[in-house]
Amino acid sequence: MRVDALAATNFRNLAPFRIEPHPRFNIFEGPNGQGKTNLLESIYLLSAFRSFRDVTNRQLIQWGEQDTRVFAEVTRHAVKRDIEIAISSKGKKVKLDGTAITRLPAAFVHFNVVLFTPDHLQLTKAGPEPRRRLLDRAIYATWPSYIDELRAYQAALRNRNALLRNHSTDRTVAAPFERLLVDTAVAVIRRRLDYIDALTPHVERAFHDITNGEHTVKLSYRGSPTDTDDAVRTALETRLEATRATDERRGFTSFGPQTHDLTVTLDGRSARTYASQGQHRALVLALKIAELHHLRAVHNLEPVLLLDDVSSELDEARNAQLMHHLTTAAGQVFLTTTDRRWIQLGNDRHVYAVSEGSVSL
Predict the structure, then answer these.
(1) Which of 120, 181, 237, 335 could lock onto 307 through a cystine, CB 3.0 to 4.6 A?
(2) Which residues neighbour 144 within 8 Å (Cβ) at sequence distance 6 or greater?
(3) E-strand spans in 290-329?
(4) How many Å apart are CA 199 and CA 141, to the nearest integer?
(5) DSSP 8-state symbol, 213
(6) CATH number of the domain encompassing residue 37
(7) Are residues 152 and 281 both part of a single domain?
């Protein structure tokens, strides 16, 4: 998997550009606030059709302009594809090989990307929401049809919450909505459980290597039984009945996939509570390396890796481990830095200077 060309006009603060990236390492260097992260954001946008930041479409358009266009030529399994996203006040339009699409086919994974930003270094410290978001995005990259399952659950959840807010809780009225809520919740939970099962051995190996086997890590899913779909369904139905009065009083559904969590334990104890600063960083590094390896195993390719100024946030030992992994196991990499001395990758690379939105090789 690689990006052969990348171009954009009116994207964020960036001057119009077109680059032909190196097949291995691409370093965007410059002071803070110059547009380096925006370059990574443009690549991620072409993969996920959304930013990794919490922004509106309008914020992606350069100030004073009416629209933006981002384009890439990518190669996946020796097949070349053109991807283009245009954003304006009328919305977002996506073209694959010049043909407009309104819906990505579930069986078509066009561009596999793994992202690692400084915000991710808080994942094992933060509350459940960022871990759920990370989990859902990683599952979508593995099984694209998951987005439909997740949206179906979210729609069912909105419908039941609307009934609760309107006090329309007559069992005859509510029953079909609640059956759909349970059905769609089971599908989401099953995907999450399957993904965690598949990711766990990759995390364990990566963490073992990073810590020289001094600690053990385990992943688990908190909020639902982890055996059969029937057990998950029974637990959801039981909880639905048990919390009905509370939900009616509060006006929203108090349980389900929207409240669940990916939990991480270190040596049998909660990493969120007991891990040191260095251990948190090692855990997150292991999670991102595992995500990379899992996608490789599923799709038989090297995903494109995006690293946003991560080296300056890692301690010396973790940064050395990351650099070793990149040189020995990663495919094409795009990374940002304020000082290339953090980046020990040899000469198999392009280094781009980024200054006030201008990109030059």
Answers:
(1) 335
(2) 104, 105, 106, 107, 108, 109
(3) 304-308
(4) 13
(5) T
(6) 3.40.50.300
(7) yes
Does residue 243 share a domain with residue 176?
Answer: yes
Kindly report the number of other CB atoms within 10 A of residue 53's CB atom: 13
Residue-wise burial string across 345-356, b where 16 or more C-beta atoms lie within 10 A, e elsewhere: beeebbebebee
**pTM for the model:** 0.89
* Structure tokens that stand for 153 in this block: 């659950």
Final residue of a domain: which of 253, 277, 297?
A: 297
Q: What is the pLDDT of residues 67-101, one digit of tens each?
A: 999 999 999 888 999 999 999 988 999 998 898 88
Average pLDDT over every residue of 330-359: 90
User: CATH no. for residue 140?
Assistant: 1.20.1050.90
Contact 116, 137 (CB under 8 A): no
Only one residue has tokens 């094409």, namely: 332
Q: Which residue pairs, CB below 8 angstroms and at least 24 apart, start in 237-244?
A: 237/182, 240/178, 240/181, 240/182, 244/169
Provide the residue range defining the domain that includes 40. 1-112+301-361
